[in-house]
Amino acid sequence: MIKIIFKEHSGAVHEVTGTEGESLMDVAMNNMVPGIDGDCGGDCACGTCHVIVAADWANKLAQANGEEDALIGMTPDKQDGSRLACQVVLNGDLDGMEVTLPEFQM
Amino acid sequence: MSMPKLEDLTLDPYSLALDSIDVSDSRIFQHGTAWESYFERLRNEDPVHFQKESPFGPFWSITRFEDIQFVDKHHELFSSEPSILIGDMTDELPLEMFIAMDNPRHDEQRVAAQPVVAPRNLADMESLIRERVSAILDDLPVGETFDWVDKVSIELTGQMLATLFDFPQEERRKLPYWSDLAVGLPEISGGDVTVEERNAGLQACFQRFNEIWQERASLSDEERAGKFDLISLLQNSEKTKDMADRPMEFLGNIMLLIVGGNDTTRNSITGGVVALNKNPGEFDKLKNNPSLIPNMVSEIIRWQTPLAHMRRIATEDVELNGKTIKKGDKVVMWYASGNRDERVIPNPDDFIVDRAKARHHLSFGFGIHRCMGNRLAEMQIRITWEEILKRFDSIEVVQDPTYVKSNFVKGYTELLVKLTAK
After folding, report:
1. Using the beta-carbon criterion (under 8 Å), do B367 and A45 form an inter-chain contact?
2. Quick one: which of B9, B19, B98 has its CA closest to B53?
């Protein structure tokens, strides 16, 4: 099991677990973490699963592709560490990763 | 262009030869429900359907949910230039809108305009919108028959658009009128608007917005900093502050915001009433549990699908569902059909206020051209229903609605209703 810590914008914290190969979006959805819409169903096509990955963890992730960058580029709430949760796939290196949810999804 | 009559429309698409089925015929939408069986047949028998001859030239129809999502997402394979409507715009007013641009220009212009409808700015508008919605609903004649489209849907979207632009409220009805003109030509969408009326209206629109732009530009920086209307926000952004010097881009963006904020919200507000009347048990469910409103808002937007299609041009040969779309071919994504695709949405013709995964619909599109006003639309419809439920026990449809003649705007021209007070 891989532990993920989601922090809502309000400060509420959700410590949940997922398994290797699941996306960060799946983990949030499966554990009823609020604040992620995932309108397109995890196809990197809507930008409504925006999350901000803590700096210590961001460099452990595979690089975002052009599609993901394009969608993140459209949100006015873009920050360093912004990713789409549907494009972040869990592996053992990410055990304990901290992820913040933005105030708004676009 | 000849004008076929609604009464001559074949209502049973299964009586036609498959390759003669032309879903660009605006009468299938004007009829109200004929489009449902036309698209059902295409989804089942020929989901990627080539129409050799139509008033809009040859085109492909994409009718299943997943195929539409594929086309919408792959903007590198399917260009949005020069237009996103099935018919090409006339050349007399070559409006520049980023919805009909490819990258890199699309991203530059969209990123500049996007903050004006971003959720962060909307929070400031919520109470104002609620006040205006409440005033309109308080003014309705309870127990009498009236036209919901005119008295509520158009009035409300007109006021909201005027609020968003800080446009004079007494002139608000011009906004939905200009929007109707912009997309209503026979050559663009199968509508009834004439080129003369359209050009005159768009010229008037441009002049009026130019005046408003100049008035607002003459405000001091301090005065403007406190304003949250769309014009002020465009003037406050480095990339768009000189937009009025580029008239076709200025008018294009204004029209995009007007059309995007008009037909969509207007027809969703009417569509919700129609849907609840066709599914009366759902209205009871809603009244017993108003916390279902946000979920119902998504369901309304799916069920109504206020914009029936978006079009693209293939930039290379693309294989899709067994067909080869050739480079240069016109490709029409029928959102109205995809949103009724039983492969993805269970019982898609039913309107279910507590539907699971209600947000998973095509009405906002997907990919870089996804609707940027989605949160504003959801907020407006949510507030409208919150305020309706506080006041009325029922909204009874007393006569079948009449529908817009268009293959683009999927909506209503009249809906006669009678209200019962709570």
Report:
1. yes
2. B19
Neighbours of B151 (CB within 10 A): 17
Q: Which letter, b or e, does each residue of B328-351 get, where b requires 16 or more Cβ atoms within 10 Å of its Cβ?
A: ebbbbbbbbbbbbbeebbeebeeb
What digits encode the pLDDT tens for the residues B37-66?
999 999 999 999 999 999 999 999 999 999
Angle, CA B242 vertex, CA B239 and CA B245 arms, to 5°: 135
Kindly calculate the radius of gyration of chain B based on its CA atoms and give it in whole angstroms: 21
Span B126-133, average pLDDT:
91
* DSSP H stretches of helix in B237-292: 247-278, 280-288
Residue from A32, A36, A40 whose CB has the most chain B CBs within 10 Å, to mutate = A40
pLDDT number for residue B400: 96
Kindly indicate the confidence band of residue A76, based on its pLDDT and cuts at 50, 70 and 90: confident
Between 3.10.20.30, 3.30.428.10, 3.20.20.70, 3.40.50.1370, what CATH number should domain A2-100 receive? 3.10.20.30
Domain residue extents for chain B: 23-150+265-421
Instruction: Identify which has the larger pLDDT, B405 or B249.
Output: B405
According to the model, what pLDDT value does residue B92 have?
Answer: 67
Spatial separation of the C-alpha atoms in residues B106 and B124, rounded to whole Å = 27
Please tell me which of the candidates B120, B361, B366 has its beta carbon nearest to residue A104.
B120
Residues of A in contact with B114 (CB under 8 A): 74, 76, 106
The CATH number corresponding to B23-150+265-421 among 1.10.10.60, 3.20.20.30, 1.10.630.10, 3.50.50.60 equals 1.10.630.10
Q: Which pLDDT value is given to residue B249? A: 85
**Looking at residue B220, what is its pLDDT?**
86
Q: What are phi and psi of B17, to 5 degrees?
A: -65, 135
Cross-chain residue pair A77–B372, CB shorter than 8 Å: no
Q: Do A74 and B367 touch (CB under 8 A)?
A: no
What does the domain layout of chain A look like in residue ranges?
Answer: 2-100
B369 with B80: CB under 8 angstroms? Answer: yes
Residues of B in contact with A104 (CB under 8 A): 118-120, 375
Partners of A51 in the beta sheet? A83
Query: Residue B386 corresponds to which tokens in the numbers above?
Result: 């919150």
Is B298:A48 a contact under the CB 8 Å cutoff?
no
- ipTM entry: 0.93
Task: State the alpha helices, DSSP H only, in chain A.
Answer: 24-30, 55-58, 66-74
